[in-house]
Amino acid sequence: MPSKSSFFSANAFGSRTIDDQAGPGSIYEAPVESIVSNKYQPRQYFSEKPLQELAASIKEHGILQPLVVVKAGAGYELIAGERRLRASKIAGLSTVPVIIREASELQKLELALIENIQRSDLNPIESAEAYQKLNDEFGLTHDEIAKKMGKSRPMISNAIRLLGLPPEMQQALAEGHITEGHAKVLLEIHDNDKRLALFRRVLQDKLTISDTAQEVKRVEVNRHTRKISRDPNLEAHEERLREALGTKVTIRRRGKNGGEIVIEYYGEEEFGELIEKLTS
């Protein structure tokens, strides 16, 4: 039977060593080496410096919040607390305090995602990939994901749109070289070569989101100028439709009395939701 961690007060949390009768809800001490990472862990990148700082804090003060695990064979699978587990290994702990939960595969991903979102630990690409996994692997609609995450449906849909960026831009966004605002503006450019060219200008010239938006507008207006000049009121109408539908909308005039409204979608799920909105 493993011993209690000297850094985690049993008096403070009522922790005890794990035995065969360990059940859900209570706090126990589990061997560090018996815990494997959550296979659905949405966070992929962990900065070394913050981990070292957390390890130093754990050495000094102990682990103040137990990790959350589920039983997995002879050991345990982590649901929440990846940073604390990694830092505990750096700090040299042999055991860590855990709470044992019962959770389905869907709940494992949900709990890991919610924890990271609440702590603002995920970069925009990691969040988008996790939302997409909830949609692809577990069949949750964008509305259902939004409710579980406490966000709006357009926010979820727009986040997933980021996965349509080329790898070079996704990496820059994940590493913080551009912001999510830059990325969403750049998605407005239809031509991928022009989008990449402007993206590289953003990096080189350190363009603000506002500057980038102006450049995007110029690129897209130039794309249409050979056809017909735009009514200055169209942009306001487009913006109203974008807010209502949660996706990119383009209005194009054709002559004096006609035109077309182009509504973009990014997957069958979003297509179905748009149809429902437009016909309800």
UniProtKB/TrEMBL annotation:
- A GO CC annotation given for this chain: chromosome
Q: Which residues form the ParB-like N-terminal domain?
A: 28-117
Entry keyword DNA-binding? yes
User: What Gene Ontology terms describe what this protein does at the molecular function level?
Assistant: DNA binding
- Give one Pfam family: ParB_C
- What InterPro entries does its record include? Chromosome_partition/occlusion, HTH_ParB/Spo0J, ParB/RepB/Spo0J, ParB/Sulfiredoxin_sf, ParB_dimer_C, ParB_N
Entry keyword annotation includes Manganese: no
For this UniProt record, give its keywords in alphabetical order, as a comma-separated list.
Answer: Chromosome partition, DNA-binding
Q: Which family does it belong to?
A: Belongs to the ParB family.
Q: What is this protein called?
A: ParB-like N-terminal domain-containing protein
Organism field: Candidatus Komeilibacteria bacterium RIFCSPLOWO2_02_FULL_48_11
